[in-house]
Amino acid sequence: MISFEEAETEETVTCLHMTFYHPCQDDKMMFRCLNFHKREQVRADEMAKFGRDSNICRYNLMDTRVSRIQFSLQFYRKLNSSELCFEIKNMSKKTKLIVDQTELGYLNKIDLPWKCIICFGDYQVLAEIQEGESMDYFETQLHLAEVPILQERRLPSLQPVPENGISSALFSSQGKKPIEIDENES
Amino acid sequence: MISFEEAETEETVTCLHMTFYHPCQDDKMMFRCLNFHKREQVRADEMAKFGRDSNICRYNLMDTRVSRIQFSLQFYRKLNSSELCFEIKNMSKKTKLIVDQTELGYLNKIDLPWKCIICFGDYQVLAEIQEGESMDYFETQLHLAEVPILQERRLPSLQPVPENGISSALFSSQGKKPIEIDENES
Q1: Least CB-CB distance to B45: which of A69, A78, A102?
Q2: Gyration radius of chain B over CA positions
Q3: Residue by residue, what is the 3-state secondary structure of B77-111?
Q4: Percent of chain B whose predicted confidence (pLDDT) is above 90
Q5: What pLDDT score does B156 carry?
Q6: Which residues on B lie below 8 Å from A109 (Cβ)?
Q7: What is the β-pairing status of strands B115-120 and B123-130?
Q8: d(CA A125, CA A21)
Q9: Is the Cβ–Cβ distance between A71 and A90 less than 8 Å?
Q10: A128-148 b/e with 16+ CB inside 10 Å = b?
Q11: pLDDT, tens digit (0-9, with 9 covering 90-100), for A38-74
């Protein structure tokens, strides 16, 4: 048995935090198959698929308006770099996938920004990547938003609204600071 | 039943031709699980995986030097374009994947050029994409090269050698012209 002193340094693991919101989530039916707060390991060679068909998708949304496969996430390493990233691909013929300002049609894909808002149908998902080193697997951690992630543009805001309308309390309530990408950091 | 006149215009299907070569292929053991010449349909949402593990890979190379998953191919549609493309990703931790002049490490990926040579270990694969319109699926057609795809650089060539050392007879023997990408075509 390898002693604590001799053991290999444990690698940090990339974790993708996804905070879901749906206007009708109070009955929580569409989210009843998602494991909130529990970190899940996904092998690096696996596509993380989100959709209605539980035979194909690891993450199931129980909603007839959701496509069999709604979108998929691919873990990859940038060429000539050690940077590990995700790519998101719209797998739905019926529904556009909006990543921040970019609208993806069926089979379109883009790199997932470190922090972004993903929308499809009435669903809103805040995605935040927590960097890691392991190339064997990554982790996902799903959260449920208590308030809409996108602010209603038509409502007059009487108070200063945080960026994207997301309260930082959302994450700190799970003992996690919001991830800040500081370009001055090495 | 829909009559011939009323039926929807049939879509053309993207076909990826892959011509394999291995210096020890005469015993054909490594290629014995590949279906040469037979076109295979692959769903657009499926990753076409090549490797040793038949539980994961659709295309099996029976060779202990080949990784469980050696590489995968993803079908996708370019953003703001109707162009359908493939992306190739190295899934092997042990072996580099070389696509023309680009060396891919584990989890690196790039767009597959319309005509290119893919190398890993002693394997050489000529890949050629025949354009199509269908977004539901694509096809693959595997061929076996009779001569090495890459010419040996150290050998003096006494005769003019065709580009990439591939004889066009390779393809015409299957009743198929080599695919020419003519940029003047609409």
Answers
A1: A69
A2: 17
A3: ECCCCCCEEEEEEECCCCCCEEECCEEECCCCEEE
A4: 68
A5: 52
A6: 76, 79
A7: antiparallel
A8: 6
A9: yes
A10: bbbebeebebbbbbbbebeee
A11: 999 999 999 999 999 999 999 999 999 999 999 999 9
**Which residues, 6 or more positions from A51, have their beta carbon under 8 angstroms from its beta carbon?**
A57, A59, A60, A61, A66, A67, A68, A69, A70, A71, A91, A92
Paired strand residues for A129: A16
Task: Give the ipTM.
Answer: 0.78
Task: Give the contacts of B118 (CB within 8 A, at least 6 positions apart).
Answer: B71, B88, B97, B98, B99, B124, B125, B126, B127
Question: Is it the case that residue A175 has pLDDT exceeding 50?
Answer: no
Measure the CA–CA gap between A60 and A71, rounded to whole angstroms. Answer: 11
Structure tokens at B181: 């990408």
pLDDT at B175: 37
Q: In a 3-state reduction of DSSP, which class is residue A163?
A: helix
CB-CB under 8 Å, A75 with B108: no
- Provide the token pair at A175: 């003992």
Q: What mean pLDDT, rounded, does chain B reach?
A: 84
The whole-model pTM stands at 0.79
Which is more confidently placed, A5 or B167? A5
Whether domain A13-150 has CATH 2.40.10.120: the reply is no
Amino acid at A49: K
- Burial of residue A117, with CB atoms counted within 10 A of its CB: 0-12 exposed, 13-18 middle, 19 or more buried: buried
B179 touches chain A (CB under 8 A): no
